[in-house]
């Protein structure tokens, strides 16, 4: 593909606004200017809006990509629209015959109505609360209008349509493939499209190409300037897909360069070996098994997977290269036992081990569990969270600073500047996808300049087909075998109108000492989604329906301490039923919880459903999971049926991979990796792009994990361009809306 072929004429291209600048600014410096000070027409009033959308610079604006595209290329005749279904989005070239503004039943909200006609018929356009429209339209105006059309008898009405004067200028809002962007309060779609058009003309077409020519040729990728143009204002859907493929490739390449680079740097780094003799290893394992046996009342041995993971960890710790191992396993698969071995190994070798947990309550649970697991080797556990008293915090800080605390468990409090470790040697991070590279590094930096050994844990396995690519910087250990004696959870699907028997079951379980989770998709009711169950209203309903059972409520808007306190009440038996959103996905271990009810189960992903189910079945009594849904969506039905059929999280991860058709196709949301703006979307070939990007990253980096000489432009883009956050491993990168 030649450069000319990569930059075909685009009917959406506008001439540069002469009032703003006499010549286009083609210097790279404009890319780094704040949007409101860029000189782009209308941008100087966007400061608050730009911050809300994360548009700090002109570069950020250029990579604020559409979330979808409306095909409005065909200009329709009004007379023909009478045959279209209500809600169809169409474009039409019309003449305005009348404009009037009327009050509505809501105070201070006005309705603007324009009468439209063409040679085939008439229609109306109606806007609510859209001020100044009457100043832009007048009788006799010729406009291209686009929007949803509805019929009221023989009367056609466009609801809140976009429109553009039909004066020969390039069409942005109708008569073409129209980009639809993520917006925020104070910014209209039309305003953003106009601003984007000028930004593309000033800086998009001349965006510096940062990929080497041989890589572009090898992958058949178009130039970055052409790709930006076609990603925003595509000539055809084929050119749009080609442009988005280029951007997806670049995201994946940045991700791989970051991971491969970090791995090569780790290989060259020197850690302090933590050697565990055979006798010491046997004592630690014996202590762990004795603790597990006390819980179930009979002898217990580690599973084959746990034993294999411990051997791998022991080998890693004995080496001079810092361990960076990911431990994958379902909820209840025994990850904490492996973590206990690693932490005990550090303490036994005169080092310190620290476990980082995402919540205060989970940190407290880990501290108690580890204290029991390691009681046989006489290793006390020090807890540090934000909820400790000043006196307890002071004692914990001093124990950590002096080295008396051999095993430390905490939340983000461990990363605070005032926390000083004497000899940090091993770091364990639970629910690793909730912590980014920078947060992990914050704890690792407390090892006194010597890289610590790091063990990451996740209860959300990633498909093996992707793990080899997406975890290029990690070694993997899988815990697939459930611990001995773990009961299977009976799982079924019920319709919302067939739950009377289910609530009788909840009462029966409560009478026998069992407890019930009820998970819902929303915090509060949404007028736009009347079918979704909300936490606050469901808690109120169940408080009345299940009385005298005690019903609690947790959700993400509660303060962390309040939420943890409510979950602690459920754990301690002060509540019989806990209603909540997916905040219970990472929660406390409640052996008495025997029933999980998931309302609106079709609204949750497979990984979430499996994680939620894992909250029950941790004791000795039979447990149940009920998926409540009346959805007719085939993919949602397939997800729920998969949950019913298998309890193997690794099998479900592969199934989830097969079923994804939009959104997070590459499975990055639950991986702790950056959320990519383009590459996570369902488009052909992006999974293959991930494999290719890994190969290119291996070639572009030297043995020390740095870009080779000659790739300075790529290095600059990865350092401070649109790919910088992805390359750095920021989990909030490219989160879009």
Number of E-type strands: 21
Strand content: 15-25%
Overall mean confidence score, pLDDT: 83
Shape: globular
Radius of gyration: 29 Å
Based on helices, strands and strand pairing, what is the structural class?
Answer: alpha/beta
Largest sheet: 7 strands, parallel
- N/C terminus separation: 34 Å
Q: Count the DSSP helices.
A: 24
How much helix is in the residues? Answer: 25-40%
* Strand order of the biggest β-sheet: 11-12-10-13-14-9-15
Unreliable parts: 1-26, 661-671
Describe the model.
The protein is an alpha/beta fold and 737 residues long. It is built from 24 helices and 21 strands. The strands form 4 sheets. The chain has a 7-stranded parallel beta sheet with strand order 11-12-10-13-14-9-15, with helices on both faces. Strands 16-21-20-17-19-18 form a 6-stranded parallel beta sheet, with helices on both faces. α8 crosses α22, α10 (304-318) runs parallel beside α11 and α20 (634-645) runs antiparallel to α21 (649-659). The longest helix has 32 residues, at 237-268. The radius of gyration is 29 Å and the shape is globular.
